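Translate sequence into C-alpha coordinates.
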Amino acid sequence: MKEGVVHVDQLLAEVIDAHGGMDRWTAYQKVEASFVSVGGLFALKGSIQDSTPRQVTVWLHEQRGSMLPYGAPDQRTMYTPDRIAIEKVDGTVVSERLAPRDSFAGHQMDTPWDALHRAYFSGYARWTYLTTPFLLAGDGVHVEETEPWKEDGETWRVLRAWFPGSVETHSRVQDFFFDDSLMLRRHDYQVNVAGGFPAAQLTSEHVSVDGISLPTKRRAYTRGPDRRPILDLLMVAMDISDVKFI
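Result follows.
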Protein backbone atom coordinates (compact mmCIF):
# COMPACT_ATOMS: atom_id res chain seq x y z
CA MET A 1 0.00 0.00 0.00
CA LYS A 2 2.77 2.39 0.90
CA GLU A 3 4.51 1.78 -2.42
CA GLY A 4 1.29 2.64 -4.29
CA VAL A 5 0.94 5.90 -2.40
CA VAL A 6 4.52 6.88 -3.16
CA HIS A 7 3.98 6.00 -6.83
CA VAL A 8 0.86 8.17 -7.07
CA ASP A 9 2.56 11.04 -5.25
CA GLN A 10 5.43 10.84 -7.72
CA LEU A 11 3.12 10.78 -10.75
CA LEU A 12 1.13 13.77 -9.47
CA ALA A 13 4.36 15.65 -8.79
CA GLU A 14 5.54 14.92 -12.35
CA VAL A 15 2.21 16.07 -13.78
CA ILE A 16 2.39 19.32 -11.81
CA ASP A 17 6.00 19.87 -12.90
CA ALA A 18 4.99 19.31 -16.53
CA HIS A 19 2.34 22.02 -16.16
CA GLY A 20 4.76 24.56 -14.71
CA GLY A 21 5.63 23.43 -11.19
CA MET A 22 4.19 24.16 -7.79
CA ASP A 23 6.70 26.90 -6.94
CA ARG A 24 5.70 28.93 -9.97
CA TRP A 25 2.00 28.23 -9.33
CA THR A 26 2.11 29.43 -5.73
CA ALA A 27 3.84 32.62 -6.81
CA TYR A 28 0.72 33.66 -8.74
CA GLN A 29 -2.48 34.90 -7.11
CA LYS A 30 -5.00 34.72 -9.95
CA VAL A 31 -5.46 34.12 -13.66
CA GLU A 32 -7.42 36.08 -16.25
CA ALA A 33 -8.65 34.60 -19.53
CA SER A 34 -11.18 35.15 -22.29
CA PHE A 35 -13.79 32.39 -22.65
CA VAL A 36 -16.21 31.66 -25.47
CA SER A 37 -18.68 29.00 -24.33
CA VAL A 38 -21.57 27.43 -26.26
CA GLY A 39 -23.23 24.03 -26.35
CA GLY A 40 -26.34 21.93 -25.94
CA LEU A 41 -26.47 22.07 -22.15
CA PHE A 42 -27.44 25.73 -22.19
CA ALA A 43 -30.28 25.07 -24.62
CA LEU A 44 -31.58 22.28 -22.37
CA LYS A 45 -31.53 24.73 -19.50
CA GLY A 46 -33.48 27.37 -21.42
CA SER A 47 -30.47 29.64 -21.09
CA ILE A 48 -28.92 30.03 -24.52
CA GLN A 49 -25.29 31.06 -24.32
CA ASP A 50 -24.12 33.31 -27.13
CA SER A 51 -20.60 33.38 -28.54
CA THR A 52 -19.67 36.72 -26.97
CA PRO A 53 -16.20 36.46 -25.36
CA ARG A 54 -16.33 36.86 -21.60
CA GLN A 55 -13.47 37.91 -19.37
CA VAL A 56 -13.00 35.38 -16.58
CA THR A 57 -10.92 35.97 -13.45
CA VAL A 58 -10.14 33.06 -11.11
CA TRP A 59 -8.28 33.25 -7.82
CA LEU A 60 -5.85 30.36 -7.67
CA HIS A 61 -5.66 29.66 -3.94
CA GLU A 62 -9.27 30.23 -2.93
CA GLN A 63 -12.55 29.28 -4.56
CA ARG A 64 -13.43 32.64 -6.04
CA GLY A 65 -14.12 33.87 -9.53
CA SER A 66 -15.78 36.50 -11.69
CA MET A 67 -17.05 36.79 -15.26
CA LEU A 68 -17.69 39.94 -17.32
CA PRO A 69 -20.02 40.79 -19.03
CA TYR A 70 -23.01 38.90 -17.69
CA GLY A 71 -26.56 39.83 -18.66
CA ALA A 72 -25.57 43.40 -19.54
CA PRO A 73 -22.34 45.09 -20.65
CA ASP A 74 -21.83 46.67 -17.22
CA GLN A 75 -22.58 43.53 -15.18
CA ARG A 76 -20.37 40.74 -13.85
CA THR A 77 -20.72 37.64 -11.73
CA MET A 78 -19.03 37.13 -8.36
CA TYR A 79 -18.65 33.50 -7.30
CA THR A 80 -17.66 31.88 -4.02
CA PRO A 81 -18.91 28.50 -2.77
CA ASP A 82 -21.38 30.08 -0.34
CA ARG A 83 -22.59 32.95 -2.54
CA ILE A 84 -23.28 33.74 -6.17
CA ALA A 85 -24.09 37.28 -7.21
CA ILE A 86 -24.65 39.40 -10.27
CA GLU A 87 -23.24 42.88 -9.77
CA LYS A 88 -22.71 46.11 -11.62
CA VAL A 89 -19.04 46.80 -12.26
CA ASP A 90 -19.15 49.40 -9.46
CA GLY A 91 -20.13 46.64 -6.99
CA THR A 92 -23.86 47.37 -6.80
CA VAL A 93 -25.66 44.04 -6.27
CA VAL A 94 -28.26 43.22 -8.94
CA SER A 95 -29.19 39.82 -7.48
CA GLU A 96 -27.58 37.24 -5.24
CA ARG A 97 -28.15 33.79 -3.77
CA LEU A 98 -26.63 32.39 -0.59
CA ALA A 99 -25.89 28.65 -0.28
CA PRO A 100 -26.32 28.43 -4.07
CA ARG A 101 -25.69 24.68 -4.32
CA ASP A 102 -28.92 24.03 -2.42
CA SER A 103 -30.92 25.68 -5.22
CA PHE A 104 -30.11 22.73 -7.53
CA ALA A 105 -31.86 20.13 -5.35
CA GLY A 106 -33.97 17.83 -7.51
CA HIS A 107 -32.64 19.23 -10.78
CA GLN A 108 -32.39 16.96 -13.82
CA MET A 109 -30.60 17.53 -17.11
CA ASP A 110 -33.49 19.52 -18.58
CA THR A 111 -34.52 21.47 -15.45
CA PRO A 112 -34.51 25.18 -16.38
CA TRP A 113 -31.85 27.44 -14.89
CA ASP A 114 -32.20 31.06 -13.96
CA ALA A 115 -29.37 33.58 -14.34
CA LEU A 116 -27.93 32.79 -10.89
CA HIS A 117 -27.96 29.02 -11.54
CA ARG A 118 -25.95 29.54 -14.72
CA ALA A 119 -23.59 31.99 -13.02
CA TYR A 120 -22.87 29.51 -10.22
CA PHE A 121 -22.26 26.65 -12.66
CA SER A 122 -19.92 28.81 -14.71
CA GLY A 123 -18.14 30.00 -11.58
CA TYR A 124 -17.20 26.66 -10.07
CA ALA A 125 -16.58 25.01 -13.47
CA ARG A 126 -14.13 27.64 -14.69
CA TRP A 127 -12.40 27.66 -11.32
CA THR A 128 -11.95 23.87 -11.65
CA TYR A 129 -10.62 24.07 -15.20
CA LEU A 130 -8.18 26.92 -14.64
CA THR A 131 -6.69 25.38 -11.48
CA THR A 132 -6.24 21.85 -12.91
CA PRO A 133 -4.01 19.92 -12.26
CA PHE A 134 -2.70 21.92 -9.30
CA LEU A 135 -5.95 21.54 -7.34
CA LEU A 136 -5.24 17.78 -7.16
CA ALA A 137 -2.53 18.57 -4.61
CA GLY A 138 -4.95 20.59 -2.47
CA ASP A 139 -5.85 19.94 1.16
CA GLY A 140 -8.16 16.97 1.59
CA VAL A 141 -7.95 15.78 -2.03
CA HIS A 142 -7.24 12.03 -2.28
CA VAL A 143 -5.69 10.83 -5.55
CA GLU A 144 -5.10 7.32 -6.90
CA GLU A 145 -3.83 6.06 -10.24
CA THR A 146 -6.33 3.80 -12.04
CA GLU A 147 -6.02 1.63 -15.13
CA PRO A 148 -4.48 3.39 -18.15
CA TRP A 149 -6.72 4.43 -21.02
CA LYS A 150 -6.09 3.55 -24.69
CA GLU A 151 -6.96 6.31 -27.16
CA ASP A 152 -6.04 6.33 -30.90
CA GLY A 153 -2.89 4.31 -30.35
CA GLU A 154 -1.85 6.33 -27.31
CA THR A 155 -1.84 5.27 -23.68
CA TRP A 156 -3.03 7.87 -21.20
CA ARG A 157 -2.38 7.58 -17.48
CA VAL A 158 -5.39 8.27 -15.29
CA LEU A 159 -5.53 9.92 -11.89
CA ARG A 160 -8.80 9.53 -9.98
CA ALA A 161 -9.45 12.28 -7.46
CA TRP A 162 -11.82 12.29 -4.50
CA PHE A 163 -12.62 15.87 -3.52
CA PRO A 164 -13.62 16.86 0.02
CA GLY A 165 -16.94 18.52 0.73
CA SER A 166 -15.14 21.83 1.15
CA VAL A 167 -14.37 21.94 -2.60
CA GLU A 168 -17.20 22.99 -4.91
CA THR A 169 -16.82 21.24 -8.24
CA HIS A 170 -18.78 18.99 -10.62
CA SER A 171 -18.73 15.84 -8.48
CA ARG A 172 -16.81 14.33 -5.59
CA VAL A 173 -15.04 11.73 -7.81
CA GLN A 174 -13.39 12.78 -11.07
CA ASP A 175 -10.87 11.25 -13.49
CA PHE A 176 -8.00 13.13 -15.14
CA PHE A 177 -6.20 11.64 -18.17
CA PHE A 178 -2.59 12.53 -19.08
CA ASP A 179 -0.61 11.68 -22.22
CA ASP A 180 3.06 10.74 -22.60
CA SER A 181 4.12 14.35 -22.05
CA LEU A 182 1.87 14.43 -18.95
CA MET A 183 -0.41 17.05 -20.48
CA LEU A 184 -4.10 16.88 -19.55
CA ARG A 185 -6.06 15.31 -22.43
CA ARG A 186 -9.39 14.39 -20.86
CA HIS A 187 -11.44 15.06 -17.73
CA ASP A 188 -14.39 12.87 -16.64
CA TYR A 189 -17.00 13.75 -14.03
CA GLN A 190 -20.72 13.74 -13.19
CA VAL A 191 -22.57 17.05 -13.52
CA ASN A 192 -24.34 16.91 -10.17
CA VAL A 193 -26.11 20.26 -10.64
CA ALA A 194 -27.84 18.80 -13.73
CA GLY A 195 -29.06 15.41 -12.55
CA GLY A 196 -25.59 13.88 -12.32
CA PHE A 197 -25.24 13.00 -16.00
CA PRO A 198 -21.79 11.57 -16.87
CA ALA A 199 -19.51 13.80 -18.92
CA ALA A 200 -16.22 13.30 -20.75
CA GLN A 201 -14.38 16.53 -21.51
CA LEU A 202 -11.65 16.40 -24.16
CA THR A 203 -8.87 18.96 -23.85
CA SER A 204 -6.40 20.07 -26.52
CA GLU A 205 -4.36 22.93 -28.00
CA HIS A 206 -2.17 23.39 -24.95
CA VAL A 207 -0.18 26.57 -24.51
CA SER A 208 2.37 27.77 -22.00
CA VAL A 209 1.56 31.16 -20.49
CA ASP A 210 3.78 32.79 -17.87
CA GLY A 211 5.35 29.37 -17.36
CA ILE A 212 2.05 27.53 -16.76
CA SER A 213 0.71 25.02 -19.32
CA LEU A 214 -3.02 24.65 -19.93
CA PRO A 215 -5.38 23.51 -22.69
CA THR A 216 -7.19 26.25 -24.61
CA LYS A 217 -9.81 24.01 -26.20
CA ARG A 218 -12.31 22.05 -24.08
CA ARG A 219 -15.19 19.98 -25.42
CA ALA A 220 -17.53 18.28 -22.93
CA TYR A 221 -19.72 15.43 -24.19
CA THR A 222 -22.19 13.11 -22.55
CA ARG A 223 -20.28 9.94 -21.61
CA GLY A 224 -21.60 6.54 -22.68
CA PRO A 225 -21.64 3.30 -20.65
CA ASP A 226 -18.41 2.27 -22.40
CA ARG A 227 -16.78 5.42 -20.93
CA ARG A 228 -16.45 6.86 -24.44
CA PRO A 229 -17.67 10.39 -25.18
CA ILE A 230 -20.83 10.46 -27.30
CA LEU A 231 -19.58 12.88 -29.94
CA ASP A 232 -23.08 13.65 -31.21
CA LEU A 233 -23.98 15.05 -27.77
CA LEU A 234 -21.75 18.09 -27.32
CA MET A 235 -22.85 19.68 -24.06
CA VAL A 236 -20.35 22.52 -23.63
CA ALA A 237 -17.64 23.83 -25.98
CA MET A 238 -15.08 26.26 -24.57
CA ASP A 239 -12.34 28.19 -26.35
CA ILE A 240 -9.87 30.01 -24.09
CA SER A 241 -7.56 32.84 -25.13
CA ASP A 242 -5.70 35.90 -23.80
CA VAL A 243 -4.58 34.05 -20.66
CA LYS A 244 -2.56 36.00 -18.11
CA PHE A 245 -1.30 34.94 -14.68
CA ILE A 246 -1.01 37.67 -12.07
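Note: Residues 2-245 form a domain with the outer membrane lipoprotein receptor (LolB), chain A fold (CATH 2.50.20.10).
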